[in-house]
Write a structure and sequence with these properties.
Blueprint lengths: L10 E5 L4 H5 L2 H8 L6 E6 L4 H5 L6 E4 L7 H14 L3 E4 L4 H9 L4 E5 L10 E3 L10 H15 L19 H13 L7 E5 L11 H17 L5 E5 L5 H13 L4 E3 L6 H7 L5 E5 L2 H8 L4 E4 L20 E4 L15 H11 L11
Parallel strand pairs: 1-2, 1-4, 2-3, 4-5, 5-6, 7-8, 7-10, 8-9, 10-11, 11-12
Helix pairs in contact: 2-6, 8-9, 8-12
Length: 362
């Protein structure tokens, strides 16, 4: 086995080439890798969609674009060539697919580690049995365990797990983002802001727009009854703008101060805007996990099926900063109408009273 030093640290390739939320839940594992000594050089393979966030992740040294399963022969050959040229010491695949396993094998990466699931594991010479479908741990913890197994296989001591935030921003950036949102929306930056993302990105089961409107009205009333005057910021992903506009209009008609966050020039700019939130409310979708990486307080709404429980897709912010709600026992696993919205509103309001969670504004 290679003896690694600060002058010759291990070069690790990490693959998480699917959706935004899945990628954000890889950041704790990336932080764990970077905490080892000597600190590895970490490259990642990601799709073009999540690449802007990969480029601003403090735990990543190099971003390699994955052209995807449908790429032509030339793009596939180019990716293989880049992996061969990288002379990686190890490959860590957080979500195993035959194509990526084959690429790692063809690239001659000597240590290849992945979860022991599906037939793709034949391409790996180190496998970790996790049985994620049982949903016994959060996804980001499963990822951390894989990172720690890789460090052990490389002969490196496993460091203590890093604590949130997994996306630490520069000093003053949160205040700058609040100032930017205030300028864009006209909202008072001294009031607590509740960001609400009613979209689902086409994947997560979510509350309806009417349910979110009811929840917001109840939370708002409870906060005002406690002497707190909140403002609401409605966010949206591509194709979700009309839904956010309609929700903002409905909340305004109900007497709430609500504004839609204007479209951002790109994913990174949108993600950084979420640092301005005093609390972020959404289904189990990408923006919720971005907010959690920023260690903003979150309230997530989940189905209760085994593969999508609040525990499995738990946000990676600090424990006191996260709330989770799902259908009760006895209800259909995807029946989001069975969630007790009154109880959810009470819990959310408690997190913002008697004083806002947010750090004082300058």
């Amino acid at each position: 086995m290679t003896s690694f030093t600060a002058q010759r640290p291990p070069h690790i390739l990490v693959v998480r080439n699917d959706k935004l939320g899945d990628f954000m839940l890889a950041w704790p594992a990336l932080a764990a890798l970077k905490a080892a000594r000597p600190a590895p050089r970490v490259s990642v393979v990601v799709p073009g969609y999540t690449a802007p966030l990969a480029r601003c992740c403090p735990w990543i040294d190099e971003v390699i674009l994955d052209p995807g399963d449908g790429a032509g022969r030339e793009a596939r050959r180019e990716l293989l060539g880049r992996l061969k040229a990288g002379r990686f010491d190890a490959l860590l695949t957080l979500f195993s697919t035959p194509r990526i396993g084959w690429l790692g094998w063809r690239a001659g990466i000597p240590l290849r580690l992945a979860p022991a699931t599906k037939w793709a594991q034949v391409f790996y010479n180190r496998r970790v049995t996790q049985r994620r479908s049982r949903s016994e741990k959060p996804e980001y913890v499963y990822n951390q365990e894989l990172a720690e197994a890789l460090l052990e296989a490389l002969g490196l001591a496993v460091p203590p797990r890093p604590a949130p935030p997994y996306w630490p921003l520069a000093e003053g950036e949160r205040e700058a983002q609040r100032a930017a949102v205030a300028a864009e929306t006209g909202l008072d930056a001294t009031r607590p802001w509740l960001f609400l993302h009613a979209g689902s990105g086409g994947s997560a089961v979510n509350l309806s727009r009417a349910a979110y409107a009811r929840l917001a009205r109840d939370v708002d009333a409870r906060l005002r009854g406690s002497g707190v005057t909140p403002a609401w910021v409605l966010t949206a992903g591509p194709g979700e703008e009309a839904n956010a506009e309609a929700l903002a209009e409905a909340l305004g008609e109900a007497g709430l101060e609500a504004k839609r966050l204007p479209a951002s020039p790109g994913l990174e700019a949108f993600a950084r805007r979420l640092a301005a939130a005093d609390l972020f409310i959404a289904g189990s979708t990408g923006p919720l996990h971005v907010a959690a990486c920023l260690d903003r307080p979150t309230a997530g709404f989940y189905p209760s099926r085994r593969s999508a429980t609040p525990l499995r897709w738990q946000t990676c912010n600090a424990e006191p900063r996260r709330l989770a709600f799902c259908p009760p026992e006895g209800a259909h696993e995807a029946d989001m109408t069975a969630i007790d919205l009154d109880a959810a509103a009470a819990a959310i309001a408690r997190r913002l009273t008697p004083s806002p969670i947010s750090e004082p504004s300058p």
